[in-house]
Amino acid sequence: MTKPLISLAAALALSAPSSAPLAAQDAPVGAPSPNEIVEGAAAEEWIAIPAEDLLVMTLAPATNGSERKVVIQLMPAPFSQGWVENIRTLARAQWYDDITVNRVQDNYVVQWGDLNYDNPEADGEPKLLPEGVKVMDESDYVQRVPEAEEEQAGRYRLIDSYAEATDVKGGFPVAQVGDFWWPVHCYGMIGVGRNYSPDTGSGAELYTVIGHAPRHLDRNIALVGRIIEGMEHLSSLPRGSGALGFYTDEEADKRTPILTVRVASDLPAAEQPHFEFLSTAGETFPRYADARANRRDPFFIVPAGGADICNIPVPIRRAGE
Amino acid sequence: MTKPLISLAAALALSAPSSAPLAAQDAPVGAPSPNEIVEGAAAEEWIAIPAEDLLVMTLAPATNGSERKVVIQLMPAPFSQGWVENIRTLARAQWYDDITVNRVQDNYVVQWGDLNYDNPEADGEPKLLPEGVKVMDESDYVQRVPEAEEEQAGRYRLIDSYAEATDVKGGFPVAQVGDFWWPVHCYGMIGVGRNYSPDTGSGAELYTVIGHAPRHLDRNIALVGRIIEGMEHLSSLPRGSGALGFYTDEEADKRTPILTVRVASDLPAAEQPHFEFLSTAGETFPRYADARANRRDPFFIVPAGGADICNIPVPIRRAGE
Q1: pLDDT per position as a tens digit, A182-195
Q2: Kind and range of the H or E run holding B25
């Protein structure tokens, strides 16, 4: 029996690697989907992510006892390196161990940190920061990107509501005005909690985006990376009933404990995750981006004729799979 | 003690009505936030939503026994009225009662319907549609909007990655190319599952957006409304482990039952919810939209200088509160 639902699935399949076979059951022949284009990329178009740039964050097990691991990719140079260095130092000092998820605001952010800092109702003193971790200032929000990199990545320009242009650099979505580029707040990106300017935070307080891209935060809060696996362990957490989605003390049991956060390169070899992202310099990425902006696979009637940078997520996969 | 977190909260407060008092604790004096601007709107700038346009969807209680109600606003004319009429008919025939949420795909959609239609693993026959419900065609995807309405709403234009212009009409976000306008896939919007074109679905299968706006679906799937209360009951559901986020039969217990879906005007007066939205024709909306595009409240350093239509959500509130 034909299952029309599967056709809807085909239309809604963009981010589902396994969509192609499913859709194929009753799909008319048509142009390849973005995922199918990526599956055809040559091995050399995939760039390994250094283990130094990966964090493994282990949450307390789910109520059914299942493991909850989140893998974070830290942002490469030239962006946000002051905060990124702080975050490696905090992870290696095991400062993040036993902090909690304290805020879940629908269509906005999940935020984790020290409950005595990260909680409007707290009255205790915050944990001290380890040696070498310093609160940053604004100088690192935007970067003049070296020529070479700009040539390497500058394969396409998209109309954007927030900048003169957007692009992908070092595997991360970025936006530009004049000579300056900055990383943007797409779904799953990780930012740094801060006090009022000129204080721009240390990296001890972090949040990730769980809704529509809050691009107004670009250049106002430092972005330091993104979640590349296990996002669902954060995005599906119960929303907080307090102001801004904070958990109130009455719902303290909803605060998910973070057991450990480790730099992947510090883990035993057998436990180290290995990921790679699709280069923008190869022949596949521009075709993938074009297919995201103009869906021509069977389900679609009217290609959009454009896309915002957060709807062209850089393909990332586990290495050797 | 100063709680820097509260300052971060101020920055991340856009969608939190109660943010202003919180932020005020240690916020420097500055321009009002978008929420503060909306709080200053005159009573006559709020437009009541007809009870005929509201659906109350009651999910099975949460594991802790708490009630889970979702309020849906159906789209007003001239958009999608064929599907909207089908949906009222389906609700009044109690067709939606005892269907389930069958798919939750992270950063994409939550989808509910008949498990024998809405499930790649099903082998039973789908429920028959009630008298008067017909599968629609493509003619209703875009609308030439009458002059008067266009003048009324045409207060601002925003650069958009997907259209020549975007705006708000009848309280809903819309986009335009040439003479034609269509509603857009923002967070919380509700769309209609369909088979391959020219079949565009009946309204028996519905989904809502739980991630970054999938604007490539605009003009390809009919949008029929949005969730205006209780979104968190859907967005925080566990993600499905099957292809496209469908729950597999091994995780059948994750399929949330939908107990009833009722048109609000059919409910006893005491149970009818009352909502209103902020008119775009008053003096407040343009100031609110400008403040969303250029945050000048204390936390911000660099106003974005723009916003996409999905980051200017139309303010909606319970009436008389």
Answers
A1: 999 999 999 999 88
A2: none
